Amino acid sequence: MCIAKGLTFSLFIALVSSASLASEGGKHKFVCDFEYGATKNFDGQNGYSSSASKIGRVVFDQIDFSSKTGKVIGNAGQEDVSLIAWENEQGMLKVHILEKSEAFNIMFTSIYIDQKSNGKKFPAVHSRHVSIGGGSPSPSNYLGYCNLA
């Protein structure tokens, strides 16, 4: 996984009920494995090409719902992340983690935590909205699971 240095993103909104994982306090760690994905490369006026891909493991550490902060750990080190989190009426806690690179690319990870299941393996989606070298967009989406470590 290529994580650019200087990841920061100041947006954070938290609307979480008092009965959720987020209200327990403390810091949480999610270890995510994304084994299925696809990348699209835009080719000017000619449309786009696509390819299957995977990114493997992404680790989000020190996720703190009260301070609205966390870290992503990748092959280029660790960097700050921000998140949006809320719980719906069915007890599903949705955690959306936002990363911004120095090259102004955005990476967005959503973790869907069904708190009624008492499980520790949760469905997740990781999306990258990038343009390499300032060129054409090369977006990608990945599916996988995150474990609460």
Helices and strands: which structural class? mainly beta
Order of helices and strands: EEEEEEEEEE
What is the residue-mean pLDDT, rounded to a whole number? Answer: 78
Distance between the termini: 20 Å
User: Biggest β-sheet: count, sense, barrel?
Assistant: 8 strands, antiparallel, barrel
What CATH first level would be assigned? Mainly Beta
- Strand order within the widest beta sheet: 2-4-5-6-7-8-9-10
Count of beta strands: 10
Which CATH-level-2 architecture?
Beta Barrel
Radius of gyration: 16 Å
Shape: globular
The parts where pLDDT drops under 50 for at least 5 residues are: 1-19
CATH level-3 fold name: Lipocalin
Number of helices, counting only DSSP H or I runs of 4 residues or more: 0
Please report which band the strand proportion falls in: under 5%, 5-15%, 15-25%, 25-35%, 35-45% or over 45%. Answer: over 45%
What helical percentage do the residues reach? under 10%
Provide the domain count: 1
Mind explaining what this structure looks like?
- The protein has 149 residues and is an all-beta fold.
- The chain has one domain: Lipocalin.
- 0% of the residues lie in helices and 58% in strands.
- An eight-stranded antiparallel barrel has the order 2-4-5-6-7-8-9-10.
- A hairpin with a 6-residue loop joins strand 8 and strand 9.
- It is globular.
- Mean pLDDT is 78; it is low at 1-19.
